[in-house]
Specification:
By secondary structure, the chain is α/β, with parallel strands linked by helices. The chain contains 39 helices and 17 strands. Strand 16 and strand 17 form a beta hairpin. The protein starts with 8 loop residues before the first strand and ends in a 28-residue tail after the last helix.
Amino acid sequence: MPELPTGTVTLLFSDIDGSTALLSRIGKRYGAALSAQRALMRSAIAAHRGQELGTEGDSFYVAFGSAADALACCVAAQRALQTHRWPDGAALRVRMGMHSGEPTRHEDAYVGMDVHRAARIAASAHGGQVVLSEATQLLVQTSLPAGVSLRDLGWHRFKDIEAAEHIYQVVVPDLESEFPALKALSTVTSLPLPATPLIGRETELEVLRGEILQPGTRLVTLTGTGGVGKTRLALALAAALEKHFRNGVYFVSLATVGNDDVMWKTLADDLGVTGQLPAAELVADYLRDRQCLLVLDNLEQLAGAPGVVADLLTGAPGLVVLATSRRPLHLAGEHEWPVPQLGLPGDSSADAVAASAAAQLFAQHAAMVRPGFAVTEANAADVAAICRRLDGLPLAIELAAARVRLLTPAALHARLGQALSLGQATAGRPSRQLTLRQTIAWSYDLLDDHQAEAFRRIGVFAGGCDLPALAAVALADRPEPADPLTVAADLLDLSLVTVAAGTDGEPRVGMLETIRDYATERLEQAGELDEIKRRHAEYYAVFAERLKENVSGAGHLPYLDRLEAEHDNIRAALTWSLDETGAADGYSGHIESGLRLAQVLGPFWDQHGHIAEARHWLSRAVALTGDQPSAAQARMTHWLADVYLRQGELPAAAAMFELNLAVCRSIGDRVQEARTLNSLANCYQESDLDHARSLYEQSMTISRELGRPRLSVRLANLGHLEIRAGNLDRATELLQEALELEQRDGRVPGIAHALESLATASLCASRPTEAWDRIASARDYIITSGDVILLAQTLELAAAIAADLGQRLAAARLMGAADGIRRQTGMPRSGADDTLLERFLGPARAAGLPAEWEAGMAAGRDLTRQQAAALLPASGSAAPAGLSPPGQAGQVPEARSR
């Protein structure tokens, strides 16, 4: 056998695409076809100095010392295969893929990732197609055969290969060159799926695609009036560019964001990055070395948006930003691209009208409310007139087309012409914006007084509202009771609102942001803006207060979900009452609602991972309470201290708890005093066990005096302390009492915490099988509690048990799953917990190869929360002789992703 090539080697893999279907078609003649294919391939391989390393069935594995030889071989082979006369006229189509690298020599072949890359690249191709990696492209680009070129297919991900690959296709003039998308894994993307196809933007898409792919382009801003279609064009453009960004394409909607802090938080949420650092640092760290396209939608209302975008681009050299805004950002290097209106009909003939983009959009939306609608000779002139009258603005056309449900195009044209008065332009308003405004105004003017009033008031909601909220805020002062569903249906008929199913299955009423802007402007003109904002804030304060008592008991998850569904409204209420007021008179009407919200949202912020927001609002609320001690101040300083504790800032947490304790004692609130003593003790669990024990005991004494409110929490915390102190019998006694109290009260999270703590005591007492059984009995409680930190803690404990039982790789995977959850939530382990875990995990980690442990950890980190929860043992399961694969340990409800 000739000596194998050394150094840089180009590997070629090929096989017949659709060989099974071909066998079914030509039957016994398949053997002859296969032999012919092998002969043609081997002739090309030999002619271009290739070395055949393996043949199995219809596949070839070949090595070349020259990338140019490998490419020439593929071209020759494809030409020979195409011109060969196959049995029964069948088309035998071979796919080929190449990659160049320095694979490791092993016996009579090669091993290593370069071999796997070449095989994966070849498997992604279609019959008749030749594809190659960027590594091969760089070697052959200056020595291509005459007439042969390379087509950039963009970045693609392949199974079991972490980094994306830049793939090219060989294009030969006399061979087929158009193929479907490669059969590779999709690129990471978070683009919403539009409800309808994009119409009339082919030219814009092509030009913008070329502009963004130009070297040096970092920022493109789509500008134009509201309703011109900036967002829709940006989505289509981003989808077309997905394969060109190896680390993904992300869409971030900022329509309801009002300040820089929330913008950074929204970016972090949409990118899926969390941690202890401020959101701006987390986002910067995540994007720093990535090649991404970031679509930032609706920036015009954010005064600080240019600064945020500038920071993003400075900190991430591989980042490209595609922004939509009604005005440019005025940043260096910005490519502003005004989005034009849709093309209008050249004349009023049916063919000309049907060919125009504006009329196509009109027909598309008209057919949605009147099935079968189309442009005809009878209606073409009216459709053309409507589109011209609306200046080709997509949103205006969609609003008008919705009326086809009731009106013919002729009747619609007549009413539209009467309603719009372009002669009454507001000074300084662009004509395009005027047209859209008048279109919305026309729909608004068709409303009766009560409908118009409801429309204006719905504009105060951020992110929409459910029917009870609509009734309380928009309809409460009606002389006669009004059905909110009927009101929503009337406004929906005019496309002034949207109605979708909420998380509870009930209708949720929303508005496009452009229409919402118009509604709030009308609300201000009517002199109602401040009053309705006050009513809105009061409603959500009451809403949150009513749900507060349900977020820690049985069946609490739906209540947390309801708060999450209204989070934008809650933010809007807090912004109006705490950030926008500037009032100096203490508890003004503005501040009151914000303080009520801040007092009751702690459990929601905590369990759903909104820790940074909790810190912002609680800091603001505490500052507004002044120096006078009060129950409100006591509650808010406690939650703020708890935020510090969650973020690992123990000195700041202890100082705030001390302040809180002084307030509680000043106002004589013994229940809150007991709670604060317990929380203050948590600050000293790592540094001073005796002081922490004394504080827990003081808290328990007060709780017993008051009839045992929340005594179980103090028992459980003291039980944890005794575990750390080595007093395991005392710890078990305390934790068992805590469990009985939680079971009596039916508090699911408390039951779960108590069982998990008892399992910890069993493990520390050298009873790992008993500890495993305790986790198994707590599994359902832990999953249904909705507490992601409890899930992480239990996974860590399970890892320690597995390690103690000799299952080191299972322990690594469990620990990795817990680590992934903690990274997502930004809540670190305490030093004491680290010490306890290291006692069991340290020996297991050292007992084998470090690479095996790291691989197990990495596999665990990649799991979703649902898959991580499935690792926990079910009741009655055996000790972990091997963990079940994700999804095979029973059906687990998907935990909420934060």
